[in-house]
Amino acid sequence: MVIGVSTANRALSDFWTYFADTGCGEYSPLYDRICRTVAESDDVLDLVREAPPRGHQPNVLLGAVHYLLLAGLDHPLGAVYAGESDADPGALFVDATLTHRDEILHLLATRHTNTNEVGRSAVIGPALTEVAAHLGAPLALVDVGCSAGLNLLCDRYRLDYGPSGATGPIDAAVRVECSVVGGRPPIASTLPRIAARVGIDRDPIDITDEVEATWLLACVWPDTGRLPRTRRALDAARLTPRTLVRGDAVEAVAETVLALPAETIAVVTTTWMLAYLAVEARVAFREALAAASMERPIAWVSAEGPGVVDLFSGIDAYIGPHGMEASVLGLVTFRGGEAEQQLLGFVHPHGAWIDWRS
Ligand SMILES: C[S@@+](CC[C@H](N)C(=O)[O-])C[C@H]1O[C@@H](n2cnc3c(N)ncnc32)[C@H](O)[C@@H]1O
User: Fold this and answer.
1) Is 117 close to ligand 1, i.e. is its CB under 6 Å away?
2) Helices within 136-226 (DSSP H only)
3) CA 150 to ligand 1: nearest atom
4) Which residues pair with 246 in a beta bridge?
5) Which of 110, 112, 152, 202 to mutate to test the pocket of ligand 1 (most atoms within 8 A of CB)?
6) pLDDT (0 to 100) of residue 2
7) Residue 115, ligand 1, Cβ within 6 A
8) Contact 224, 350 (CB under 8 A)
9) d(C-alpha 244, C-alpha 207), whole Å
10) What is the pLDDT of residue 332?
11) Block means of pLDDT (10 residues each) for the chain, length 358 residues?
12) Is the peptide bond between 138 and the residue preceding it cis, with omega within 30 degrees of 0?
């Protein structure tokens, strides 16, 4: 706990410290330093508390400041983000936030975390191979909470697992590296054929709109090497048809799944989405899938924080490589209203590593 902040800011300060402890660390020293500085800054925490609750999430302020820089703000923090300056990012972040208070407050009030992390394709890939081994192919993907739908194109990316193998086109423009830190995930040279791709999001990102695409890039952490591949994924996605539906996860999922081509295997994916739903809505989402499975089998691949998918609760938090809290990769197969769950493994939240347990 940070002792110096006002009582009103204590809880928020603890949240930023927790975020640094479990989400940044060695993986993002830049954001680790910034989050710990924010946790000690009453001025920044006061500003954050002026925003609606969803703007209190560290990723939203981190994205807002990054957005201003990507949109052309001339501030010394830009050189730090570009890896061209060793100045203290914490002090500069505080300065950028407080000197652009109105723009920041506007972003905190109007934006939320829309990260679309293509690194997650590296953990979805083996899960899809596992699904096809049990249920067959071609697959029809419904990515719920899809943001811009970049992970609907997981079969177009080169997923490189080092000595454990690689999946996807060798000349792919988008390359994702993922270390296998445990077990033997099914790494096939190509993913099962994907015959349909549909994304659902309450706020899908229109990547043909420059402001929207800039916000998507702003949600990427600058020092993790992921920005160039996200830009390449955006370029690839602009050329590839995907259907993105604006809608709520619980309300839209069954109808969307039941509209998939009959000869396909329906696969629903949720990656770091369910946590944004209230606990009752998470249950309603699972029940919607179970009800829809009265009409066709459905495989649900989830990669979410520990305890977020109730069928995989009771798993202790596990701190993996880079000091990051592992997320849970799970597969639930619904048939005739019944659910059968299978723990596939643990994964880094941005797909940097996978620990396969199935
Ligand atoms: C952290 S982003 C993850 C995006 C993507 N799944 C990925 O892994 O790259 C969470 C996404 O879930 C969406 N979302 C949050 N609540 C939702 C809801 N109730 N219904 C549909 N989408 C939702 C957000 O708009 C956002 O795009």
Assistant:
1) yes
2) 210-218
3) 9
4) 201
5) 202
6) 63
7) yes
8) yes
9) 11
10) 98
11) 84 95 89 97 97 93 98 97 96 98 97 92 98 97 97 97 98 97 97 97 93 95 92 92 93 98 98 96 98 98 95 85 87 98 95 95
12) yes
- CB 10, CB 64: distance < 8 Å: no
Q: Which of 332, 335, 328, 330 is nearest to 349 (CA)?
A: 328
Q: Which of 299, 290, 304 is nearest to 336 (CA)?
A: 290
Q: From ligand 1's centre to the CA of 355, what distance in Å?
A: 24
pTM metric for this prediction: 0.91
Q: Whose CA is nearest to atom 15 of ligand 1?
A: 276
Ligand 1 site, residue 286, Cβ cutoff 6 A:
no
Sheet harboring 298-304: ordered strands across? 179-182, 353-356, 338-347, 327-335, 298-304, 265-271, 139-144, 194-201, 243-246
pLDDT of residue 321: 83
Q: What's the CA gap between 84 and 18, in Å, rounded?
A: 28
Task: Using most ligand atoms within 8 A of CB, pick from 111, 221, 268, 276 the residue to mutate for ligand 1.
Answer: 276
CA distances from 5 to 90, 98, 147, 336, 339 (A): 16, 17, 35, 54, 47
Domain ranges of the chain: 7-110, 118-205+216-356
- Identify the sign of the CA torsion 192, 197, 200, 201: positive
- Domain 118-205+216-356 -> CATH class: alpha beta
Rounded CA-CA distance 304/204 in Å is 19
Cα–Cα distance between 131 and 344 in angstroms, integer?
11
User: Look-up: residue for tokens 């043909």?
Assistant: 208
Residue with tokens 């619904």: 334
Residue 177 phi, psi (nearest 5): -105, 135
